[in-house]
Design a protein that fits this description.
Structural class: alpha+beta
Number of strands: 12
Shape: elongated
Length: 362
């Protein structure tokens, strides 16, 4: 039953994320006069589908790990190969992806990752409007004995105002700053009986067991709040907060990836399809709000992943278009082909690595 829940939750989540990503490509392509032959969620043989009034085949395919938009006279947005378009009429040629200006192609490719960010903002806005945002007042209720906070001079009832130069409105923001740090000392400003006091605290490593029973580590300073609750926002405020949260998650993701390369975080934190399926099942069992929040976070990560300047990903294509603008002409086909082969090798290597990582930590 647990396996079935995780599998269904994973398939629903991935389908939604892939659909909106490809919908971004599709919508902007159509707005720029590009004819779309196929809109596919998944790869491989078709499971079922239909034609719309524009003769686009919308379909679900057997391998659900991704999707693509195939455009008339072209492969797809993420393909370096093109069909022979010499036999097309001028009118038909004008509806191909390749015939569009570099800025139109840039917009079509960028629309996929942007759609993922928009989806995350929409999901978080709805969540914060109807359920609420996790919100704990940034007041210290307890200082753990022997902790870094005790050594730094924290006291119960301190109101945390700033941390590492950033304003702290809620306790969760301080937690994120500490846990995404690399253990370097933090300057924290607290309001103590109406007086602003600056404290310097160096987080300590805390070893704990993760949900798989494996030993993991995190940074802690050793303070507690009064507990978490949910704060509902009016729609306009929820929308602004959702944008801020999307930005903070994006920055935090880049920071965590950088820390992996620097050796401050373990590569075991990287997860693939199996890990995501586990998380999906756990989130679904925890409730719809948790599941929606996970979907928003993964949508942000999918957008960021696709913006990486790696051939085969949207970011690689965008980089080629930047070169085309600078040079005044596109890179030659042989260079692009070599780049796509390297990109394919990198993407496949990453997929194999994270899948092996998933199996190793189960």
């Amino acid at each position: 039953m647990e396996f079935l829940t995780a599998t269904l939750a994973f398939l629903v989540l991935l389908t939604v994320l892939v659909f909106f990503h490809e919908l971004g490509h599709y919508w902007v392509a159509r707005k720029n006069g590009v004819k779309v032959d196929v809109f596919s969620v998944g790869f491989g043989p078709e499971l079922f589908g239909f034609y719309d009034k524009n003769n686009t085949r919308w379909k679900f395919s057997v391998v659900p790990l991704g999707g693509y938009v195939k455009m008339f006279g072209d492969g797809d947005v993420t393909s370096s190969t093109n069909d022979d378009i010499d036999c097309l009429s001028d009118e038909e040629l004008a509806t191909t992806f390749k015939a569009k200006s570099v800025w139109q192609r840039f917009a079509i490719v960028a629309a996929g990752p942007i759609a993922n960010f928009i989806l995350a903002i929409v999901l978080l806005t709805g969540l914060y409007t109807f359920v609420g945002q996790p919100y704990s007042t940034a007041i210290v209720s307890k200082v753990i004995d022997g902790s870094a906070a005790e050594a730094a001079g924290f006291m119960a009832e301190d109101l945390i105002v700033q941390a590492d130069g950033a304003d702290v409105e809620r306790f969760e923001k301080l937690q994120r700053l500490v846990q995404l740090g690399s253990g370097d000392p933090l300057k924290i400003v607290v309001d103590r009986d109406g007086q602003l006091v600056t404290l310097t605290v160096k987080p300590k490593v805390d070893l704990y067991q993760d949900h798989n029973g494996k030993e993991a580590k995190r940074w802690l300073i050793g303070i507690q709040s009064n507990g978490s609750s949910y704060k509902q926002h009016a729609f306009p405020t929820a929308f602004v907060v959702a944008i801020e949260e999307t930005y903070e998650i994006s920055v935090g993701t880049f920071k965590a990836i950088g820390q992996i390369f620097e050796g401050h975080r373990s590569v075991e934190e990287l997860g693939g399809p199996i890990r995501i399926a586990q998380m999906s099942g756990q989130a679904a069992e925890a409730g719809i709000p948790t599941y929606i929040f996970l979907m928003a976070v993964l949508s942000i990560n999918l957008g960021l992943l696709n913006l990486m300047p790696v051939p085969m990903l949207d970011g690689g294509h965008l980089l080629f278009y930047v070169f085309e603008v600078i040079r005044g002409r596109p890179l030659n086909e042989r260079t692009q082909e070599y780049c796509f082969r390297i990109g394919l090798a990198l993407v496949l290597s990453l997929m194999i690595f994270v899948t092996w990582n998933d199996i190793w930590v189960i």
